[in-house]
Write a structure and sequence with these properties.
The protein is of the alpha/beta class. It has one domain: Rossmann fold (3-Layer(aba) Sandwich). It contains 14 helices and eight strands. Strands 1-2-4-3-5-6-7-8 form an eight-stranded mixed β-sheet, with helices on both faces. Helix 8 packs across helix 9. The longest helix has 21 residues. It is globular, with a radius of gyration of 21 Å. The chain starts with a helix and ends in a 21-residue tail after the last helix.
Length: 338
């Protein structure tokens, strides 16, 4: 018994020492902004306090696009698309609460409803009342939920590897290890203050069909932004499953009467391609494009192809209406069109 007790105490000391060595403090917003803010960064304030970080580029009289990133990401995920779009469109990108350079609003209530409100806060501050909403992953979940809540504000809807459907048995087997760990309450508590760089790298590599696209700079950016004050708490709260959710259903999505484009990586390990097909079947007149040998983030992995498909879609959304007795309109792509 004495030997066993010595072994257990020794193991406990080693684990505690390792945990202490891996602990990382928060990084101040001032420090993060000095590294990651953009030349066109803007900040929405509530009183004297900064709340949301966003960018606003392109002609003010052009059609407006609002781009919303996914879980643990930031508005940086849209860099390649923004460069291609800002000549012809007004492009607004925002960091959701608890992400990027945005602050936390209320981590007890963080979730889709809070993100919908955040989109409204940014667009209202800019006097933008009509736009096409584009969302990736969790941002896609936010986008279609926004379309159900405020259809009158949208010209079109774009879902990029969108979340929202529950996994069928076996569908989540390829999920990156970091997400599996974060779904475990004990693991979340242990990992909360630790250096997550190795797991972040592994998660990003699982998110791309070509892991070589994951750079040291990308891993450092994700890791650093997750260490902003309160961000780790926000991210863990989102993963806990206790935050407010808006579940996808065929009945609810069938109410969306907007031109809708669905883009999805054929090799997505996070959101199965079968979920994209469910969106296409549920949303009337939607168009589905699947990118072979592409992972969870087509806007970064195949930016040229995916943005060109987006531009074709936008041209149809913002085309001048034909006039005359013979003019007719048809749904974009037909139900679940390819």
């Amino acid at each position: 018994m004495k030997r066993l007790l010595v072994v257990l105490v020794t193991v406990a000391i080693i684990l505690t020492a390792g945990w202490l060595m891996l602990r990382r403090p928060d990084i101040s917003y001032n420090t993060l902004e000095s590294v990651y803010s953009k030349s066109n960064s803007r900040y929405l304030k509530s009183g004297n306090k900064i709340v949301l970080h966003f960018t606003d580029t392109g002609p003010r009289d052009a059609p407006t696009l609002v781009l919303v990133h996914g879980y643990s990401a930031s508005l940086n995920t849209w860099d390649a698309w923004a460069r291609k779009l800002r000549k012809d469109y007004r492009v607004i990108r925002l960091d959701l609460p608890g992400h990027g350079l945005s602050r936390c609003v209320d981590n007890d209530e963080i979730g889709i409803e809070q993100f919908i409100t955040s989109i409204d806060r940014v667009t209202n501050s800019l006097n933008v009342d009509q736009f096409t909403l584009v969302g990736s992953s969790m941002g896609g979940h936010t986008a279609w939920a926004y379309a159900l809540a405020h259809p009158e504000k949208l010209d079109g809807l774009v879902l990029v590897d969108s979340a929202g459907w529950l996994d069928a048995p076996g569908e989540g087997d390829k999920e990156p290890m970091i997400f599996k760990l974060l779904r475990n309450g004990l693991a979340r508590n242990v990992m909360k203050d630790l250096d997550m760089s190795a797991l972040i790298r592994a998660g990003l590599e699982d998110s791309f069909a070509d892991p070589a696209l994951v750079t040291d700079e990308m891993v450092e950016r994700y890791s650093a932004m997750s260490r902003a004050p309160c961000h780790r708490e926000a991210l863990l709260k989102l993963m806990s499953g206790t935050t407010l959710r808006v579940p996808a259903s065929k009945e609810a999505l069938g109410e969306i009467a907007l031109p809708t484009l669905i883009q999805h990586g054929g090799g997505d390990n996070l959101v199965p391609v079968s979920h994209a097909k469910k969106f296409a079947e549920a949303i009337p007149g939607s168009k589905l494009i699947i990118y072979p040998e592409t992972g969870h983030i087509p806007q970064e992995e195949v930016p040229a192809a995916s943005v060109e498909d987006l531009k074709i879609f936008l041209e149809s959304v913002y085309a001048e209406p034909e006039t005359g007795p013979e003019s007719e309109t048809e749904p974009l792509g037909g139900p679940g069109g390819q």
